């Protein structure tokens, strides 16, 4: 099948990612923050547990603590006392009796096992055990979950709802995290107007810078917003110079497509170096990446969907790499069945916005959100995944298998 015209010189997404990421060195500056301020931050070094978990032997069940030596057929065990979480049993424990114990309560001295209450029967004068008992059953031993000194989190872990409660359970009130990445953003184009301002004739709203700022905030970056830069070489050079002075990463939107790129390319070659300029993906072909004197540069396309796709697929892993993040960023791709025809021209890897669901037969199936133009941002609002169509593939017919990539937390809400 013939490739679409003018794609032979384009770099693949995989090559672009490799060329980008292999150049990067993660930042190392760290600060200490309280656990309450640590959500979304990246651990700067491994974290070890300061204590054993559990810190004492305790019961895994509501039931009865007993000694194995006391067990005899049909024996009625009197209940000598009670043990609760936070209120252990400390009295005398007569031979031949049991202690009523609740989940999480400390195990009484001399106890060999805990029998759950469902395996007992109430009788006059006590309880009868109705099931075999094994040594140490239903007892959580000290350090069984985590031993003091054991590493619980590695460096490069993004702290979220799974990690922070773990640290809280260990009594860790403060954690060392990497400083936030500083990212400078600006848009280029005389036709752009800030969101919330009235539009003059021929103007459009600067949705790209707004979208990029939202995603950067969600990724925990410090955003330096330089606004809209006029289509003027001197103004653009000043913007690049100022952005490079302040930031770790500089992101521009617009000014990198054919017919727009002269100023941008000339300035980048003057102030730094360009690694690549155009990608074999759709949407998002006009994406630029390079190095300035003090920062990395990413030039996003002007069309809103193209800007969002390239940010998601390229800038997101770049930012994660710079923060030393080791946890998975992009979701695993999987196969789904197309429920309708998907239009596709060979030549570029295509990211179509779609809705993933499960069919009546239990198989994952996917349908398009509709129009896939690079200016149709409503396709993102409706979607929960990308259909990732191979570079050489043509149209997809209903019932064919396609590869999908579910949105991660950056896009899923």
UniProtKB/TrEMBL annotation:
Keyword terms: Magnesium, Metal-binding, Molybdenum, Molybdenum cofactor biosynthesis, Transferase
InterPro entries membership: MoaB/Mog-like_dom_sf (IPR036425), MoaB/Mog_dom (IPR001453), MoCF_biosynth_CS (IPR008284), MoeA-like (IPR038987), MoeA_C_domain_IV (IPR005111), MoeA_C_domain_IV_sf (IPR036688), MoeA_linker/N (IPR005110), MoeA_linker/N_sf (IPR036135)
Gene3D superfamilies registered for this protein in UniProt: MoaB/Mog-like domain, MoeA, C-terminal, domain IV, Molybdopterin biosynthesis moea protein, domain 2, Molybdopterin biosynthesis moea protein, domain 3
The protein's name in its UniProt record: Molybdopterin molybdenumtransferase
UniProt lineage: Bacteria, Pseudomonadati, Pseudomonadota, Gammaproteobacteria, Enterobacterales
Organism per entry: Pantoea endophytica
Protein family per UniProt: Belongs to the MoeA family.
UniProt EC number: 2.10.1.1
Catalytically driven reaction(s): adenylyl-molybdopterin + molybdate = Mo-molybdopterin + AMP + H(+)
Residue ranges occupied by any MoaB/Mog domain in the UniProt entry: 184-321
Cofactor(s) listed: Mg(2+)
Primary role: Catalyzes the insertion of molybdate into adenylated molybdopterin with the concomitant release of AMP.
